[in-house]
Write a structure and sequence with these properties.
Chain B: It is a multi-pass membrane protein. Chain B: It comes from Naasia lichenicola. Chain B: It holds the Pfam family BPD_transp_2. The structure holds 2 protein chains of 2 kinds. Chain A is built from 9 helices and 10 strands. By secondary structure, chain A is α/β, with parallel strands linked by helices. Chain A folds into 2 domains: 177 residues, Rossmann fold (3-Layer(aba) Sandwich), CATH 3.40.50.300; 68 residues, no CATH class. In chain A, strands 6-7-8-3-9-10 form a 6-stranded mixed sheet, sandwiched between helices. In chain A, strands 2-1-4-5 form a 4-stranded antiparallel sheet, covered by helices on one side. By secondary structure, chain B is an all-alpha fold. Chain B has one domain: ABC transporter involved in vitamin B12 uptake, BtuC. Chain B has a two-stranded antiparallel ribbon. The longest helix of chain B has 29 residues. The chains are: A alpha/beta, B mainly alpha. The interface between A and B is medium-sized, with 30 and 19 residues.
């Protein structure tokens, strides 16, 4: 018998009014995977992450964590059970220091107390290169550092599954490799990652599997290079002529 | 009556107003909810204490041991099942619902306990006083209320700034959505904040019932004093609330020394001066401290 996947969706659908953003979506993610998700705007990527993180409930289908149905569990329950989300637009607690922001996550999501919470918060500060801002108010951080704090918060909450929602958006070309390195080290420490991104080369650098979504359905899935080379992905997502061979290194979006 | 005496009595009165205002300030700070039924709940607590005093032959202080936990539970329940549904981007539903609650409480009391003025009696402690030179007398009970208010606010302030739960409350006040990502349920935190606020207003209602008489319609005056203290002190700051309450108390007692019939009017005038020239209050803080 094969072990249960860490997270699984069974025919998950989500509609907003009459607009069906996700439909009949099946996904299995094994522990230790780094799953990259690409797709055109409006493909349902962010909706998928929101449904996995519990920010919005699915209209249909079930979500399983370790084989247990968690479809009706709210986001704070999921945060306590190892599902952490980093959003594209960070929303830190602006009136609190960076360290205090992380202490909230370490205390209430990871369930650490006292010195262990402090250690977890400091560890996530170091991993995201934010040590020098530890005592700065979160409101004083510029956008890039707020994004780092958003990832740090997710790390401080002790995740088993880390959901990353376009965290490379708005970064410069020099900053992306640093972020890729961070995700790689997080994955190496045993955290499963699902990463939505338009910066495709960032994904291909760490993803063990790539999935291309379009209109709430899977367009292509598998080994990253193979997915990027598939004719549908090249035509619908990358806007390239499927007859011409892919350039080396993969295109940037 | 000398001005010095009036100021001292005003400071002590400020302790009582601080107890009224702290709950209002806390609920606004944590969940951005303005509870217009705050005064009505204080009156409810005073009548609850009166009932316990009459049936159980307890004194009002002992009645607090029953009435404070009861009001805290009521606060939790009212928040979870009524007020939680009114929270959102618009403050209007909460204002309407709490205003409705205050009408329901006031009229239910009118029907059941009549409009008669009541008073809670502490016996000899009521009139006990410390005599100071210059003919100044400090009432033992007002002094006890003032010290209690100081201790409660210090404790609350310490919990908010130093403990992990205080940090969580500040986080909820900042962004309830992000709090969920951190594994905590804002609704539960709101419930506990309401429980603390209702416990405080119960103490305030009973203490006020010992110092002056009350009737089912006393709630609106309590509410106005609490509002004035919060605004004078500055929204969202607990120490500011204490300071605002003391300013209001002094304004009223000094006003009474100058024009005995116009005590409350002079309090309102001082409040209006603050609203006109220092609308952010004495502390002008944005975050909950």
């Amino acid at each position: 018998m094969t072990p249960e996947p860490l997270v699984e969706t069974r025919s998950v659908g989500r509609s907003f009014g009459r607009l069906e953003v996700l439909s009949g979506f099946d996904l299995k993610v094994e522990a230790g995977e780094v799953l990259g998700i690409i797709g055109p705007n409006g493909a349902g990527k962010s909706t998928l992450l929101a449904v996995l993180g519990g920010a919005i409930p699915p209209t249909t289908g079930t979500i399983l964590l370790d084989g247990v149905d968690v479809t009706r569990r709210p986001s704070h329950w999921r945060a306590r059970h190892g599902i952490a989300t980093s959003y594209q637009v960070p929303r830190p607690f602006l009136g609190m220091s960076v360290l205090e922001n992380l202490l909230v996550a370490a205390t209430f999501a990871a369930g650490s107390r006292g010195h262990r919470a402090q250690a977890a918060a400091v560890d996530s500060l170091q991993r995201t290169n934010l040590e020098r801002f530890a005592n700065a108010e979160a409101s004083s951080l510029r956008l890039l550092d707020r994004k780092r704090l958003e990832v740090a918060r997710a790390l401080a909450s002790g995740p088993r599954l880390l959901l990353l929602d376009e965290i490379a958006g708005g970064l410069t070309e020099q900053e992306v490799p640093e972020l890729v390195e961070l995700v790689r080290s997080v994955a190496a420490s045993g955290v499963t990652v699902i990463w939505i991104e338009h910066v495709v080369h960032a994904l291909t650098a760490v993803a063990t599997r790539l999935l291309c979504l379009s209109y709430g359905r899977v367009l292509a899935e598998g080994e990253p290079a193979a997915v990027l080379a598939s004719p549908e992905v090249r035509r619908i997502y990358l806007g390239l002529d499927p007859e011409v061979a892919a350039p080396a290194g993969g295109p940037d979006a | 009556m000398s001005i010095v005496n009036a100021v001292i009595q005003g400071i002590l009165l400020g302790g009582l107003y601080a107890l009224f205002a702290a709950g209002l300030s806390l609920m606004f700070g944590v969940m951005r909810l303005v509870n217009l039924a705050h005064g009505a709940f204080a009156v409810l607590a005073a009548y609850g204490a009166l009932l316990i005093v009459r049936t159980g032959a307890l004194n009002p202080i002992a009645a607090l041991l029953i009435i404070v936990p009861a009001m805290a539970v009521l606060g939790f329940v009212v928040q979870r099942f009524i007020l939680q549904r009114t929270l959102g981007t618009s403050p209007l539903p909460a204002l309407l619902v709490t205003f409705g609650l205050s009408i329901i409480i006031e009229n239910t009391l009118l029907l059941t306990v009549t409009a008669d003025q009541q008073r809670l009696n502490l016996g000899s402690f009521d009139t006990a006083a410390i005599a100071l030179p210059g003919g100044i007398r400090i009432g033992a009970f007002p002094l006890a209320v003032f010290v209690f208010a100081l201790v409660v606010l210090a404790l609350l302030s310490l919990v908010l700034s130093r403990t992990q739960y205080g940090r969580l409350v500040r986080a909820v006040s900042d962004d309830p959505g992000t709090v969920q990502l951190n594994g905590a349920d804002p609704k539960l935190i709101y419930g506990f904040a309401a429980a603390i606020a209702f416990g405080l207003v119960a103490v305030a209602g009973v203490a006020s019932g010992v110092q002056t008489s009350f009737s089912p319609s006393s709630g609106s005056l309590f509410l106005i004093f609490a509002f004035e203290a919060v605004i004078i002190g500055g929204l969202g700051s607990l120490w500011g609330t204490m300071l605002g309450a003391v300013v209001l108390g002094i304004a009223q007692t000094v006003g009474a020394a100058i024009a005995p019939a116009q005590q409350i009017l002079i309090g309102h005038l001082v409040f209006l001066v603050f609203l006109a020239f220092l609308p952010g209050g004495i502390t002008r803080q944005k975050a909950l401290r």
